[in-house]
Amino acid sequence: xxxxxxxxxxxxxxxxxxxxxxxxxxxxxxxxxxxxxxxxxxxxxxxxxxxxxxxxxxxxxxxxxxxxxxxxxxxxxxxxxxxxxxxxxxxxxxxxxxxxxxxxxxxxxxxxxxxxxxxxxxxxxxxxxxxxxxxxxxxxxxxxxxxxxxxxxxxxxxxxxxxxxxxxxxxxxxxxxxxxxxxxxxxxxxxxxxxxxxxxxxxxxxxxxxxxxxxxxxxxxxxxxxxxxxxxxxxxxxxxxxxxxxxxxxxxxxxxxxxxxxxxxxxxxxxxxxxxxxxxxxxxxxxxxxxxxxxxxxxxxxxxxxxxxxxxxxxxxxxxxxxxxxxxxxxxxxxxxxxxxxxxxxxxxxxxxxxxxxxxxxxxxxxxxxxxxxxxxxxxxxxxxxxxxxxxxx
Length: 394
Prior knowledge:
With 394 residues, the protein is an alpha/beta fold. The chain has helices at residues 16-29, 43-51, 67-76, 87-101, 112-121, 123-129, 142-152, 175-185, 188-193, 229-239, 258-275, 278-287, 297-302, 340-353, 367-370, 372-381; strands spanning 6-11, 36-40, 58-61, 77-82, 104-107, 132-134, 160-170, 197-198, 204-207, 221-224, 246-255, 304-313, 328-335, 363-365, 385-390.
């Protein structure tokens, strides 16, 4: 590691999300001694991007379909962060290159199939080389994973723990992310089932099976979200101390109006059915923005998210969540979830991996496992909030 000429290399820097991450890295590293670079296929576009960024980032030309170029790029840097997706199609060669030479890695995938492939095909190599491969360092799944980790730290560790996460968000998506989401829609069953049960760690963990319900403390409706987030939270619960003698997690969208619930459910159901057929996918793709496109600054500035994490001890929780004073409530808030905050989350993940504060772990890991409290402190310093609103009373 001491011989490497870069501390952080951002792959996919000329894409829409990659450009936002590059701006975050430039702002965060200005005036420091950190050596960083931007990487992608097009030298001219990279050079124009680098010229507009502070810190004089290195330009590294690399095509993710070229194993030799990937290996050389991974060997140059201590940390590689990648925005190049869809990850299930383009991510594995990048992760393999990092694992082979002990380079730390971070991505913003939300694809269950990709994370499963990493665990199956790359984890052992990363453990042997000492590489830490941190997945899901964006809105999937940082607020939920770190929010739950903070919540369970306020609960007793000698009891069964049940936690629910309720998500509200507003924002738009880019063309690349829209196509990644379309691919995920075709595998909703896989996302919903990922990480359901397990006993391969210090405790039994399970997914909390509550359907659409009225969370009494919050009002409105709570609807199960078939995203990768529950699987990431449960993976952290298997690996880390402090999640009780057993642990259950439910993950929900919080919807205030019944009409919104019905409309969103119908739209998602129709899109999911279409995404499972080739003609349906082709039709949906024609309706999506082109890759590389995304919301402008004004739209991103209007975006925001809130995640409420409600935790309690006990084995038979009702759908209302813990009564006031009997459990823990954590609130995580930030700006535009898909782009502004996701770019910030990946940039801070890369900087955490480049620091000496992070946990000493290797292999394919979650943000809570691979980045820990140092990462949360960085995000708080960058403007996200993690607030403990209630704790159990003795």
